[in-house]
């Protein structure tokens, strides 16, 4: 088990700025473009979506299948756990 003193510090000391800053800048650029030129941005995103769906539809279907399976498994686990709590030991 790690020493608690090693984990002390602010959240900003734990964040890798080499990852945060480029991601934040990309997100900010996307938001600004969407706010400044919404019609052109919408048209561009629709073109990107059409290209993705024509070339990578199988990835989309696979992701939807995995998310659905995860939801069903977690719902089943939550239902089973709550049933055990209410019924008590056998």
- Count of helix runs: 4
Sheet with most strands: none
Low-confidence stretches: none
Question: What is the terminal separation in angstroms?
Answer: 36 Å
- Secondary structure class reads mainly alpha
**Strand-residue fraction?**
under 5%
Rg calc: 22 Å
Order of helices and strands: HHHH
The outline comes out as flat
What's the helical proportion of residues?
over 70%
Question: What's the overall average pLDDT, rounded?
Answer: 85
Number of extended strands: 0
Helices, strands, pairings?
Blueprint: H1 11-14, H2 17-36, H3 38-55, H4 57-87
Helix pairs in contact: 2-3
Question: How would you describe the overall organization of this protein?
Answer:
It is built from four helices and no strands. It has helices spanning 11-14, 17-36, 38-55, 57-87.
Short structural description:
This protein is mostly helical and 90 residues long. The model has no long low-confidence stretch (mean pLDDT 85).
Tag the structure with descriptive keywords.
90 residues; mainly alpha
């Amino acid at each position: 088990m790690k020493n608690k003193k090693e984990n002390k510090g602010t959240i900003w000391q734990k964040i890798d700025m080499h990852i945060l800053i480029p991601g934040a800048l990309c997100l900010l650029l996307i938001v600004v473009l969407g706010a400044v030129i919404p019609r052109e941005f919408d048209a561009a995103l629709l073109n990107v979506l059409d290209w993705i769906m024509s070339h990578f539809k199988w990835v989309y279907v696979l992701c939807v299948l995995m998310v659905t399976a995860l939801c069903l498994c977690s719902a089943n686990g939550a239902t089973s756990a709550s049933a055990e709590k209410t019924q008590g030991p056998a």
